[in-house]
Design brief:
With 308 residues, the protein is α/β, with parallel strands linked by helices. It has two domains: 177 residues, Rossmann fold, CATH 3.40.50.300; 123 residues, Beta-Lactamase. Strands 2-3-1-4-5-6 form a six-stranded mixed sheet. Strands 8-7-11-10-9 form a five-stranded antiparallel sheet, sandwiched between helices. Strand 9 and strand 10 form a beta hairpin. The longest helix has 25 residues. It is globular, with a radius of gyration of 20 Å.
Amino acid sequence: MSNKISIVGRAGVGKTSIIKLIFEGYDPKDLMMKPLEPTRGINPKGYYWMDLELGVFDTSGQELPYLLEDEQEQLIAFENANIVIYIFDYPRWTSNSQEIINEIHTIYNSLKDISGKIKLALIFHKVDLINQKIKGNYFLMRNGIKNRINLPENIPIYFTSLYPESVHSTFNAFSNILSNFSIESRKLRDILNHNISTFPRTISFITKKDNSVLVQSIGSEFNTSNIRNLYVLTAHYRNLTSSVDIFDGKIHYVDSGPQVLSFVIENLQEYNPNLNALMVFSEDHDSEELSELTTKIKVDIKNIYVQH
C-alpha cells in the first residue's frame, strides 16, 4: 500500500528542491546554482523508499492561499495522507511570522477535520541564512517557534538547508520523518547511530540504489566544516559502480578542504538490491579502528537481511 506525503509551503521556500535532493539524488550545489521552475497545481510523483512506496504530493506555493480556503482542494492535497510537511523559511519567518503561524493553524485544523490520523511536521528551511551567533542553538529556536505557534499538541520542527555545510540537516530530517513509516530504514539508522556513538569524529552514510542518501549518522565531535565539500565528494563516489576499485573495503584518503579524511566504501547490494553502499569517513587515521568499525556496521546490516 502506498504512503502519501503532502508537502506544502509558500512559493520560493524550497519545496521542490528538497524533493529533488531527498528522493532523486540531486547534488545540493546544483540545486542552489540552478533554481527550479515553480510548481503549478498539485504535482504527485511516486518514489520507493526501501520498504515504502511513496506518493509525494508537491503543492504550488503560489496557490497555497487558495488551497487553504478551499475545502475541496484541501481534500485533494491532504486526504489519505500519512503526513503533511509544511515548509517555511528563515527570510519569511523574520518578515511575516504571523502569516506562517496562521497557515500552520489552518492546516492543522484542516487535518483534524479530514482525519485525526494525519500527522503534521514542520520544516524551517534555509537555516544557513541565520546569524552565526544564534545559528547553532536550535533547541532555543525550536522552543521559541513552538511557543509562537502554540498548537494544542507537540509538532516536530526540523531545521534544514541545501547549503553544503548544513545539508546533512535535511537528510536527517527526512530520515527521521520517513523512519516513522519505514521499519527497514529505522533499523539501518539505528545501526549507524549505535556504532558511530563511540567514534565521535566520524560520519557515515547508507545510500540507496538511486545513489541518494537513505540514512546517515554524524559523530558528536565531527568538524562540520568538513561537510562543506564532503557531499560534493560523496556525490561523485555514489555515482561510481560496484565494479570500481573504490568499493574494495580498504582505507582511502580524500581532501575535504579543511583536512584530509580517511574513508571506506562497502558494497551493500549483495544484501538488498535496493541498497547501494555503506560510506564511512573519519577525521582520525587509525586504519585498524576504521576497518573494524566498517566491518561491524556491515555485519549488523547483513544480519537484517540474511536469514540464519
